[in-house]
């Protein structure tokens, strides 16, 4: 086996390192691999996670700013223990040897399109941009002064906007590389998603410099692989929120209620601009009980777990029982407890339909478009589409939400509907219980008026003659109630009781019904307000759950392994969830780095075998004539 050494500048949490460490090719009967000498970064937390992800202790904490650049970036003098890095420090980090391959991924904040132009031109971000040149300069000086040579390959990765915002820097970098005899290629059309076969489009600017003396033969561009869909990547993962299987980064963000509503209204594949065209007054949000609500227990089987919810339909537990002790005689009504088949005509519609419906609507404020708003804000990605580029920005600034098809539900459009007195009635359907159809009406006739039948809801005394027996059979329409003095018992304590929110609950009994004990609670929690934060499931019109991607899922879209070398689910330590997203968004996808490392190893193997020219269908990455021309930029 032949190992070629590699060093990484601005290595972050180790995306590039992990990928290049996996690079391996076979040529001429021998295996060629890359061996990592070091990964340099100023951030100790990033270095800590770099070693956890790669499984090797190769990260080196080193700030590559000059003193002037440090002051411009931080706005103050460095601490007393800080000192400017020298070529010797770089040489020590390299393990006193010249790396065969040098990869650098300097900070791109000042060069990104996400940063306003005014900020990008400030002294602060110009200092940050200078690291693109300083890292290469320090490495070359270290190799020349202490090793008497230079890397065979140098590669730089950054955002495409570097072509315009960093044009002057690129000319300096090209001049420096050509001074040392490198053939140079600079292009901004490299899609790392296609190079690595990822589930996202990630177009990047790459420089590849080849030392024409050490490697006189060509380097070929890595072959393109088909992109996966976002569903291909996150579909096999644990359900969001399962932190036991997915680790601590698989938590769902606690977003504001209005944000969840906006996500539900945006079509899959769209973004915040869709909200401007939504007739929000035509929408309302309805509640769907969890699985088990309205469930009826079997008399001969153990009951389900008793939950804190009081009453059927309020939790995922069954609070109803199929009781065989009723023993209704043959004289009972034919339709008593009758369950109607779905595919047959309904029984006669009677005046007693037991409506318990209400009205629940929400008015969602529209997001107004303004100049400079990023086009991917609140974007919903379809599960059958490739994800856009994973960035380090917070939720609301990029396409980090997905229309998740794993929540499947069908709701009735008229649930909780209340019909107008002066309007036409909705279709009469066979389902008349709560949440099934518009079986409520706003009736103006409730007030007393002359001519109203006097015996409605009349309670007759036991010691007086009964009222006239009429043909009606409803307790609301005649004197069909009696105050029976023969009842010798009183209801148990707590019947119809309402528990105080601030007090302990009474004993939980086997009959969890409001008629049998204190099984109701005075719940002070209102419907969520716009600014309330939490995790809610709102099913969008396409039948999916529009939700933000978890940090764990973003790492998987970036191509990281699902588990760390020590067996734990992928996770980052010592940082907030927002910082973890930034680290992941800034990382080079490991699969793309692996593919690029393979073509570099192949070129190195051919150079060692003395192959200076060959015919090939593959596209050449760095041609000899490119080192003699102007800056090669493909639009």
UniProtKB/TrEMBL annotation:
What Gene Ontology terms describe what this protein does at the molecular function level?
A: methyltransferase activity
Q: Name one Pfam family in it.
A: DNA_methylase
Give the start-end ranges of region Disordered: 304-324, 497-526
Query: Which InterPro entries does the entry mention?
Result: C5_MeTfrase, SAM-dependent_MTases_sf
Record keywords, A-Z: Methyltransferase, Restriction system, Transferase
Please indicate which superkingdom the organism of origin belongs to: Bacteria
Residue spans with biased composition (Polar residues)? 506-519
Respond yes or no to whether keyword Transferase is given for this record.
yes
Q: What is this protein called?
A: Site-specific DNA-cytosine methylase
One of the GO biological process terms: methylation
Q: Has the keyword Transferase been applied to this entry?
A: yes
């Amino acid at each position: 086996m032949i190992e070629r050494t590699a060093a990484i500048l601005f290595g972050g949490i180790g995306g590039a390192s992990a990928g290049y460490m996996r690079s391996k090719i076979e040529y001429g009967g021998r295996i060629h691999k890359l061996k990592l000498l070091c990964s340099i970064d100023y951030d100790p937390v990033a270095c800590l996670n770099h070693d956890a992800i790669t499984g090797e202790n190769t990260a080196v904490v080193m700030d590559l700013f000059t003193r002037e650049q440090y002051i411009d970036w931080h706005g103050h003098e460095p601490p007393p223990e800080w000192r400017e890095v020298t070529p010797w420090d770089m040489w020590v980090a390299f393990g006193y040897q010249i790396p065969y391959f040098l990869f650098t991924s300097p900070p791109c904040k000042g060069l990104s399109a996400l940063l306003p132009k005014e900020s990008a031109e400030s002294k602060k971000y110009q200092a940050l941009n200078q690291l693109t040149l300083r890292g290469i300069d320090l490495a070359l000086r270290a190799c020349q002064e202490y090793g008497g040579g230079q890397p065979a390959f140098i590669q730089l990765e950054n955002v495409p906007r570097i072509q315009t915002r960093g044009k002057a820097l690129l000319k300096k970098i090209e001049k420096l590389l050509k001074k040392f005899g490198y053939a140079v290629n600079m292009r901004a059309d490299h899609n790392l998603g296609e190079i690595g076969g990822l589930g996202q489009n990630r177009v990047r600017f790459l420089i590849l410099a080849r030392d024409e003396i050490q490697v006189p033969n060509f380097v070929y561009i890595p072959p393109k692989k088909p992109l996966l869909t976002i569903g291909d990547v996150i579909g096999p993962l644990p359900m969001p929120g399962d932190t036991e299987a997915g680790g601590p980064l698989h938590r769902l963000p606690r977003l504001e209620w209005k944000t969840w509503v906006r996500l539900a209204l945006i079509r899959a594949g769209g973004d915040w601009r869709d909200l401007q065209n939504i007739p929000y007054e035509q929408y309302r949000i309805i509640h769907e009980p969890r699985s088990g609500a309205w469930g009826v227990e079997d008399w001969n089987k153990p009951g389900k777990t008793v939950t804190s919810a009081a009453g059927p339909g309020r939790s995922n537990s069954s609070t109803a029982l199929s009781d065989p002790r009723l023993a209704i005689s043959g004289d009972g009504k034919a339709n008593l407890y009758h369950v109607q088949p779905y595919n047959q005509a309904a029984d006669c519609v009677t005046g007693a339909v037991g409506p318990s419906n209400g009205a629940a609507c929400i008015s969602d404020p529209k997001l107004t478009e303004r100049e400079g708003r990023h086009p991917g804000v609140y974007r919903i990605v379809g599960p059958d589409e490739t994800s856009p580029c994973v960035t380090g920005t917070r939720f609301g600034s990029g396409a980090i939400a997905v229309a998740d098809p794993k929540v499947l539900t069908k709701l009735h459009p008229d649930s909780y509907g209340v019909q107008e007195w002066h309007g036409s009635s909705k279709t009469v359907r066979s389902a008349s219980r709560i949440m099934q159809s518009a079986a409520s009406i706003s009736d103006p006739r409730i007030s007393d008026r002359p001519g109203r039948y006097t015996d409605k809801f009349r309670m007759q005394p036991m010691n007086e003659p009964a009222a006239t027996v009429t043909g009606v059979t409803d307790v609301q329409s005649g004197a069909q109630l009696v105050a029976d003095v023969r009842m010798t018992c009183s209801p148990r304590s707590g019947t119809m009781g309402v528990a105080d929110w601030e007090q302990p609950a009474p004993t939980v009994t086997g009959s969890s019904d409001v008629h049998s004990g204190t099984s109701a609670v005075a719940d002070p929690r209102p419907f969520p307000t716009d600014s309330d934060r939490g995790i809610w499931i709102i099913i969008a019109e396409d039948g999916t759950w529009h939700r933000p991607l978890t940090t764990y899922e973003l790492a998987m879209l970036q191509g990281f392994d699902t588990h760390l070398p020590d067996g734990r689910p992928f996770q980052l330590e010592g940082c907030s969830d927002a910082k973890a997203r930034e680290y992941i968004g800034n990382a080079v996808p490991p699969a793309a780095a692996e593919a690029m490392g393979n073509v570099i190893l192949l070129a190195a193997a051919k150079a060692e075998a003395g192959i200076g020219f060959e015919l090939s269908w593959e596209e050449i990455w760095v041609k000899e004539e490119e080192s003699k021309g102007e800056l090669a930029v493909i639009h």
